[in-house]
């Protein structure tokens, strides 16, 4: 994966909905355009992050499953005024 994240969130071992909540907190600390990589082991996170990005100004340029770990890359979008 050629994406270079600006921050990495290790949410492995956290049950739903904690990976998404921690990701929202991490995104709030980033500037628009910066990239957050999230690692999670909760299978429900696949759907959770897809829904979150669809309902937000953020983009998910990539996601993949490596063994038992799900990797998500979310680029922070501009906050609505």
Automatic annotation (TrEMBL):
Location of the UPF0033 domain: 9-33
Entries under CDD domains matching the protein: SirA_YedF_YeeD (cd00291)
Gene3D superfamilies: TusA-like domain
Pfam families membership: TusA
Domain of life: Bacteria
InterPro entries: TusA-like, TusA-like_sf
Protein family according to the UniProt entry: Belongs to the sulfur carrier protein TusA family.
Protein name: Sulfurtransferase TusA family protein
Natural source organism: Halomonas pelophila
Lineage of the organism: Bacteria, Pseudomonadati, Pseudomonadota, Gammaproteobacteria, Oceanospirillales
